[in-house]
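so ive been stuck on this for like two days lol. basically i have the seq below and the ligand is zinc ion, smiles is in there too. i just want the complex predicted, nothing fancy, no docking runs or whatever. if the output looks off dont worry ill sanity check it later, just need somthing to start from for the group meeting slides
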Amino acid sequence: MAMNVKNCRKCGKMFNYVGGMPVCPACREHAEEQFQTVKKYVQDHKTATVPEIVEDCGVDAKQIQQWVREERLFFTEDSPVKINCEICGATISTGRYCEKCKKDTAHNLKDSIQPAHVEQPKTVANMGKQSSRMYTYKK
Ligand SMILES: [Zn+2]
Ligand SMILES: [Zn+2]
């Protein structure tokens, strides 16, 4: 079986890549812990600025931005942290686009995205060969 090994983007260690972000399980877990810390912090400190979050939670501003883009981290209206729609500039609480632009881009994506490459049914053929061989050996 071909293993897809990658270097972790955070710590550089080799790990068995299974998809998503190229980050090893240890770093992924660490990031998740950080996320929970920040999420709780933002809930408790609704008026905290990004530099305050960075200092009190010990996370990267870039990491915070990424969580916002992934729509995992929300800032309330009381928050001085303002996120703007990347298309029209409207103030939003999370993500990259406002609801209106999100709808528009989703519509555009649907039209422009090509169908994903079709997997060849290699494994099925191999398995068929293997089982018939096993049968012969048993006999
Ligand atoms: Zn790592
Ligand atoms: Zn917009």
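The beta strands are 5-7, 14-16, 83-84, 91-92. DSSP finds five helices and four strands in the chain.
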